Amino acid sequence: MTPEFDVLLARAETLAASGRRSILGIAGAPGAGKSTLARRLVAALNGRTGRAVLVGMDGFHLAQAELERLGRAERKGAPDTFDAAGYVALLHRLRHPEPAVTVYAPLFRREIEEPIACAVPVPADVPLVVTEGNYLLVDEPPWSAVRPLLDQAWFLALDESTRRAWLIERHRRYGRTAAQARERVDGSDERNARLLAPTAAHADLIIDPAPPLM
Hints:
By secondary structure, this protein is α/β, with parallel strands linked by helices. It contains six helices and seven strands; from the N terminus they run αβαβααββββααβ.
């Protein structure tokens, strides 16, 4: 049974009130609603007693030119199309903030399909970082270094028909034709979804189904 949003918000608020920097990770397959839930949590926390910043894993996408150089452009979104080591290094910095030091995280801009460096400031006094992405719970290096850095990890297990429909709509919203969107969803997105399904076992909380939370 899916927890109500207020229940999830209370869990996040507990992390924010722990007295130290905490990191909440939200994982799931492409199109499961990770970024939507993460943004909603952060907005609610910033409107109540806590404070939080959203740092997405997608900011560590390799640049399109580098993907083309490596011959991986057609597999964009696969585990080896990210700077996983860079993401892990950032999480280390975020977990152990230096007093008065702002850490800058990258941001992925879907409208241009490129990461933007130093786009997300994380001041040292922000108590909670919410991070979301596909591969947070993968148990193979280099991604396996992520899970120990998370205080809590949630996995969104949206039903497949809804997830695929949302994903097709997202691809179309960012310029793909209906045929191109379906090809992407049936191809690399589906391969990634199958890879990620077993990683739910490493989550503290599996949220299924997700739509009422969105």
